[in-house]
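quick one, two chains, predict together pls
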Amino acid sequence: MAVESVFSQEGKKLTIKIKGRFDFGKHQEFRDAYERQHPVLDSVVVDLKEATYLDSSALGMLLLLRDHVGGDDSDIRLVHASDDVRKVLAISNFDKLFDIS
Amino acid sequence: MPANQALRVLIAEDGAADRLLLAQIVRRQGHEVCTAEDGAQAVQLFMQQRPQIVLLDALMPVMDGFEAARQIKALAGEALVPIIFLTSLNEEQGLVRCLEAGGDDFMAKPYSPVILAAKIRAMDRLRRLQATVLEQRDQITRHHHHLLNEQRVAKAVFDKVAHSGCLNAPNIRYLQSPYALFNGDLLLAAYAPNGDMHLLLGDFTGHGLPAAVGAMPLAEVFYGMTAKGYGLVETLREMNAKLKRILPVDMFCCALLLNLSFQRGTVEVWSGGMPDGYRLSAAGEVLGVLASRHLPLGILPPERFDDSTCVLPLAEGERLLLLSDGVVDSGDAQERLFGEQRLHQVLAANREPAQLFDELMQALARFGGQARDDISLCDVRMLGPDGAAAQAVVYSDSGRSSPLDWSLDFELRGDSLRRFNPVPYLVQLLQEIHGLRPSSGLLHSVLSELYANALEHGVLGLDSSLKRDAQGFSEYYRQRAERLAAEVGGVVRIGLRVEPHATGGRLMIEVRDSGNGFDVASVLARSPQAQGFCGRGLNLVQRLAHSAEWLDGGRLARVAVQW
């Protein structure tokens, strides 16, 4: 699977792993990864270790996720981004909305 | 559809007994039958009655089944008319010939009614499948034409809106792929009343119509507010608020906005999410980058939106190169990106600015091999102080109701000084006076200068001598933002007095601030060159107005404009 979701034992922390190109093609899978889950999520980690590329529709998907889990009160971390992916996030200044590491 | 739906079946068989037998079998299965005695008759009947399935004897007089099959297939065109060969041929070669002539199946004598019925049903399934595929293909083609036509109309409407600005100004060169709009790219330019030029390069998320719809409201805000004399900050706030309100959560607009002030020799920049723009010398050498410092438009709610711009000196002849992400993100067959490195090489190799776009497009073509549909390039050159004449706005009323004898005083304090720019309102108000309409650019410049001086040097106490060089320049604007962010004490008073004269009238403008004033005599005594960036305001006001004086130790500016 290109988008994989894993829950912590308490079920309140969701980790979404993206593999390959993170673009509009993953739209449905990405939404399914968090929308079908329990209503209360404390935090979400998006693991971009195996994401090779990220385009502006992926940025839009991240905004949807952020909106879904509480907007300004959300706790979302984007982790293991490669240099290329990190660059796209930096140009858009998404570090002002997400915790990127 | 029921499996036993009645079909029109053509049977061609030279043997009368076989022909009758077959016709009977097929009729009993509920189908309608027509019969031919040879291939030529079969082709003739096919043309007249358009049967849906054909049973052909391979060996017949006049025209054999192979030739009849070829002709029937040719007549049927794209539609599938299944042909079942009736044959006593047993050797492989004969059966292969049947299929090669266009036959879809064959049936050996003696005929089994059960197998024949099954074969007709199977062929009917294939026939209907083909018909469905053709219908869907045609539907897709129709939709595609429809869509292209809609895009063409939408683009024509949009071009009218977008090109109402000044993209054709002599200092702008731009290149956009024809349907860049439907990839979300947007390029707008317009003159402000004071002769400044505003320019926007934007890129909406997504493709197609969804990406293009946001462009209309954005263009409207851009042109409307620029024409009314609003600055970048107010325009940005309005654009962000509007997009935030109308766009779905996952849509936003990366944008780079410029305000080129030819009078001051500066450019004000705001970039959210766009690739680096470049500041180039007249010869094309890279002097600096315009980096994205903000989130794109339409993401943050108005109260969290960051409208801080940066102001850079830009000498006459220097240029700014802006590009959409279609350039650096162009990929080759191996998904490698064109990247900044290759872009820098093209910039470094460029000798003739007019050739830059061609060289860039050639480099992209060499790299990726195919043209992308989302490339926008814009090269805008700084002009001297008199380079751009603002377009006079045309009004439709007669101006007979012009008020010619009135005055107005008002005072701005605290928070209002931090957030509000009174200049566009005052210019709008003064437009009610017919005789002043041709001078709206002049009024905008004079009021902007006087208000900026009163706010920045008077109320905020900023030291204008900071603006000697590029570094001091950014320091000046850093301090300005810092002091505006803190509590602002002090006031700015603006007074307008209009009086009619025998053949026209006179407007007196007074702007007073609560600051410490300045040494009027020594600042005015400096030559414009010695004043550099710091004294341009006073110099400009003196040049534009009929009279200008600074009283009360520089705290009060009094300017007269006559018509």
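Chain A has a mean pLDDT of 87.
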